[in-house]
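seq as requested:
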Amino acid sequence: QLSFHAQGAMQYGTRIHAYIEALPNRIWNASDYDSLTPLPSDHERIVLQALNENALYRKALSYQEVYHEYPFSVCIDHEIIHGFIDFAAIGEDIIIIDFKTDSGLTAEALIKRYREQLDVYAKAMYKLYPKKQIRTYLYSLSLHKEIEVGSYVKG
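struct tokens:
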């Protein structure tokens, strides 16, 4: 059974992910935040604005194809794998960003915790886009920064 704190953290993470998905695929402004339901708290606006100002996220938004909650279903090593990637931008290369709301963890601890998940996402995208380089990142909403997990080239 989840503790009260864990339940609150899960709700916060779900809410932040929903806001990111609902916001337009461009640089956001104050009226974009005001259109969200429920309205984000002051703290949530600060977290969202830090992402909005992040250079990697801005670069990814300029790609030809930008997806939130990108669905995939692929066969890897005779096993069907399916899921949703928080954010995928597809251009000359592919940028995958997985948003994390974990607090109190260093970048190294986040990589250790989520590397396997990002590796699965990279393998799935290779199946779908075998000729593209894939770069995977975590974006820590508590640290306000992206963390590179890997760069993968089919070889």
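The two ends are 45 Å apart (CA to CA).
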